[in-house]
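As promised in the previous annual report, we have extended the structural survey to additional targets. Below is the entry for Bacteriophage protein.
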Amino acid sequence: MVTGWWAEIFSSPSEAVLTLTGGVPVVEVTHNNFVNPASAELVLTGSRLSLEQTVHPAPPALALTGGVPNVSVGQVISPAHAGLTVTGGTPSLGLKVAPAAAADTLTGGTPTVTIKSPLSYVSANASTTSSVSIPAHQVGDLIVLCVFDSQYTAPTKPSAGGTVPNWNYINNTNTSAGQGAVTTAWFIATATNTTSGSWAWAEQMIAVVLSGHNAASPIGGHAAVGGAGVNITAPSVTLTHSDGSSMLLHFHATAFINGGGWSSAPAGYTRRIVAGPSSSRSLVLNTKDATTTDGSVTQPDGSSGWAYAAATVEIIN
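The corresponding structure token record, generated without further manual editing, is:
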């Protein structure tokens, strides 16, 4: 006995052509009808086509129309040297030219060339009487005398004659009572047998021979002092030449030398010669080693209350 039935109908319609005119189609199939439409052809009407594709254009070529291009290139370009062309005007070129040594040509007149020879200490002699033997010397050598009196009267020179020259005083000044006095003098030898002659008021004498001095005027700064006491100080002078070319003579004299003899020359000085002691009187000569500067210098060899005298003489070339 059949109480019910059902039937399934499978329809296979022919392929449809889907035409879309704007919008989006919605296809809905009901009643269990399965529709397999044929592939549709999409036709767009209106709107604008949008393609999802990346386009890599070829590198563009740079074209400049007018103006001046400013091109920055990471490279240093050294152009060839340019030639200088001057059109009109006068060029000013910062150029220093060292000319070749020129020959010195004198037209008329007589050139004077001064050549200074260095000073030389030749020798010295000393005496405890009124005259002193001059050391061996040549014509043109400089002779300097220092003469000491333990009283205040500066010794005086003898009259010129024979081998005794006309001595030129450097310092010849009396001092005060209770003080000593010295005379200094010079002469440029005109013969090789010069003598001192006998000096008045002389107790001690020193004669020094030098060479290389200024022939016209050999004496620079000079001074002499008298006093009493232990410290016998030769005075400072204003140097005529402060370039170290001078020679400085420092004379110290005392009426009563302490301890029977002179102490060593001060630092920076050289002991040259001593006259005495005679009855405790004595005279000493030191020279300064460096003569770019000068200053007073002391020999602490006198005695308290006893007379002394001292002198400084600059010899120049």
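The first strand starts at residue 120 and ends at 127. The CA atoms of residues 8 and 35 lie 15 Å apart. These points will be discussed at the next consortium meeting with the crystallography subgroup.
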